[in-house]
Design brief:
The protein is of the alpha/beta class and 422 residues long. The chain is built from 14 helices and 17 strands. β2 and β3 form a beta hairpin. α1 crosses α10 and α11 runs parallel beside α12. The radius of gyration is 24 Å and the shape is elongated.
Length: 422
């Protein structure tokens, strides 16, 4: 059989996390901010395929919060009426796969993962590919190698944790087979999300306040990337809390950061967490301006038209147990609405013309009513929504599990005009 053609263009695949539409938008915004280019060729499920230039895979993944894996596509082929199983068997022969595996000694460990762009990758297909993996393993052994094939007991794809803990990318590699109804793509994983680094930044930082809520570092990264800001821009978080957004921005290389919070303790926590991350990660120290301030008086602390971007998660309301009566939920959202209306009106005066606002909004899903923040004041405050692929009709992304009571809505706005009188 004639081998399928080697791709002549630079082709990259991303395996996205639990919120693929949000992760895709994050990738596209981050690539532009980093000076690279991206052209999508195919997308579906948790898979994004396309041509990437100007950015190395590992460096890009370290900046992304919503992506699990990144790799290079080596071959692509139309199914042309064949079954997926037959096509994969034809492609994944030992003489093709073994040269892809990276190993500096006699020990080789490898794995295989399947991802579907439409529907889901059937686990039975993974089990049917057992002879393929065994054939590759035996071929390696015949070459004098100590070969180990790493598999998943109950999934069609290896998790980033499995890939990392088994050191597959150092000792051999992970082959990823991506497919839709008409085509197969075969690639090798170059990097996986560093789950240990996220856990370290989340749980080992010196100051945590679970009572007031903790923004996960992954989500903070996504918010920063959605802003499209570059590292020489001034980023402000007027609800800095424990400093997650500002710390992640420092890690991403931002040179100028500003933050404020009504709580004296929160500002102190932010300062300590940022400098802890700078010290433990050996980062260059940015210029940081931290202030104690109610958001309604924040213009007294920072100059008008001085900020390039605001990235923030304001107060999302009191903790909920899921048993609140509708009148209590409505009362909560009346308070939240006033805070958000005041916030967008005030912070618009801090942003330069064309400046960007990325903000998290609370959303409570009950039956039969869903409670969310009205966006009517945004336009009067001089903001226009930035429309990104995958957004809802409200021009937001939703972040949360299906069974979760309180979700996050994430929106991106640009300051396009002077504030109107509200």
């Amino acid at each position: 059989m004639t081998p399928p053609p080697l791709l002549t263009f630079s082709s990259t695949f991303f395996i996205l996390g639990n919120h693929p539409l949000l992760a895709r938008a994050e990738i596209e915004r981050a690539v532009v901010a980093l000076g690279g280019t991206w052209k999508t060729d195919a997308a579906g499920g948790s898979v994004l395929l396309g041509a990437l230039s100007g950015i190395e895979h590992t460096a890009l993944l370290s900046r992304l919060g919503g992506t699990i894996k990144v790799g290079r596509v080596l071959y692509t082929e139309l199914l042309s009426g064949r079954s997926r199983l037959s096509a994969i068997r034809d492609l994944l022969t030992p003489d093709r796969v073994i040269p892809w595996l990276a190993s500096t000694d006699a020990r080789v460990e490898f794995g295989m993962s399947l991802y579907a762009l439409t529907g889901s990758a059937p686990f039975r297909l993974t089990k049917q590919l057992t002879p393929v993996g065994m054939t590759i393993r035996e071929a390696l052994k015949s070459q004098g190698k100590r070969a180990r094939w790493v598999t998943s007991r109950d999934a069609s794809a290896l998790s980033s944790v499995v890939v990392s803990k088994n050191r597959l990318l150092e000792r051999g590699g992970e082959v990823c087979v991506l497919f839709d109804d008409q085509r197969l793509w075969v690639g090798m994983t170059d990097a996986v999300q560093d789950f240990e680094a996220y856990a370290h930044r989340d749980y080992d930082r010196p100051r945590r306040d679970a009572k007031s809520g903790m923004l996960p570092p992954k989500v903070a990264q996504m918010l920063i990337n959605l802003s499209g800001l570059t590292t020489n821009h001034l980023l402000l978080d007027p609800f800095c809390g424990s400093g997650t957004i500002l710390a992640e921005a420092a890690r991403m290389g931002f040179e100028h950061l500003a933050g404020s919070d009504i709580s004296t303790q929160a500002v102190a926590d932010t300062r300590e967490n940022i400098y802890w991350l700078i010290r433990t990660s050996h980062l260059p120290a940015p210029v940081i301006n931290l202030q104690i301030s109610d958001v309604r008086k924040v213009t007294e602390k920072f100059s008008a038209n001085s900020v390039d971007g605001i990235v923030t998660e304001p107060y999302l309301g009191p903790p909920l147990r899921g048993r609140e009566r509708p009148e209590q939920l409505q009362k909560n959202f009346d308070v939240i609405q006033r805070l958000y209306d005041d916030t967008v009106h005030v912070v618009s005066g801090l942003l330069r013309p064309g400046g960007v606002l990325v903000m998290v909004l609370p959303k409570v899903v009950t039956s039969p009513k869903t409670y969310c923040v009205s966006l009517q004041v945004w336009e009067a405050a001089g903001f226009q929504p930035v429309s990104l692929p995958g957004m809802s009709v409200r021009k937001t992304f939703e972040y949360g599990r299906k069974d979760q009571y309180v979700h996050r809505e994430i929106g991106v706005w640009r300051r396009v005009a002077s504030r109107a009188t509200i």
